[in-house]
Amino acid sequence: MSQAPIELKGSSFTLSVIHLHHNDPEIVQQALAEKIDLAPAFLKNAPVVINVAALSASNVNWRRMQQAIAATGLHIVGVSGCKDQQLKQTICRSGLPVLNEGKETRPAAPPPPPAAVEAPASTTRIISAPVRSGQQVYARNCDLIVTSHVSAGAELIADGNIHIYGMMRGRALAGASGDKNCQIFCLNLSAELVSIAGEYWVMDQIPAEFFGKAAHLCLKDGGLTIQTLN
């Protein structure tokens, strides 16, 4: 039976976008290294998009910046937010695609659940809609509460605690800014990955007696610990 050697299909993936707000490659490299140390399960060797909206060709050496980012182990798959034509040409010559960020026009429809949304500081972010595969929700400087289900391939990230009241099949990263006192509370733990302040378990490391059950995770003596959630 004959079959074409390749097949081109559309798909979707979750990618982190790094917004550069400084033009010194060494400072950017150090800041990225610190972030990776805090959440290695989420960022180590990760593919990323670099947003350069705050940079121009006159204030940044793109070759050095690209090398500095690559030195952290991150893999740049594209560059977004490029408004400077000279910088755009330099980026293209480096072999990276420049991504256009346009708004799609669609027929009126209910809004989708939020993806990669940052919450205002000092509040608790509450998500009542299901978090679907490929979506990422980030609660900046606050706790995150999800009252619905979280699908496999979805990511919850919070600088504070994470509470999930539906089935949890995706990834949950609490204490993303390094707070070791953060905790994860889940009524049905079937997660691909759980992490607190960079300490993590993948699915196979979650004790079998807690899998699919109501559970509470926190850090104890520098490592993750889990208890039944009563």
SS strand fraction: 25-35%
Number of helices: 4
Kindly state the mean pLDDT as a whole number? 83
Helix content: 10-25%
As laid out across the biggest beta sheet, the strand order is 5-7-9-11-14-15
End-to-end distance: 57 Å
Poorly predicted ranges (pLDDT <50, ≥5 residues)?
102-122
How many whole angstroms does the radius of gyration measure? 20 Å
Note the main sheet. Answer: 6 strands, mixed
How many beta-strand elements? Answer: 15
Q: Overall 3D geometry?
A: globular
Structural class: alpha/beta
Q: What sequence of helices (H) and strands (E) makes up the elements?
A: EHHEHEHEEEEEEEEEEEE
Description:
The protein has 230 residues and is of the alpha/beta class. Helix content is 16%, strand content 30%. The protein has helices at 25-38, 40-43, 62-71, 85-93; strands at residues 16-19, 47-51, 75-80, 98-99, 124-127, 136-139, 143-146, 155-158, 162-168, 171-174, 184-189, 193-196, 199-202, 215-220, 223-228. The strands form three sheets. It has a six-stranded mixed sheet with strand order 5-7-9-11-14-15, with no helix packed on it. The chain has a five-stranded mixed sheet with strand order 6-8-10-12-13. It has a four-stranded parallel sheet with strand order 1-2-3-4. The radius of gyration is 20 Å and the shape is globular.
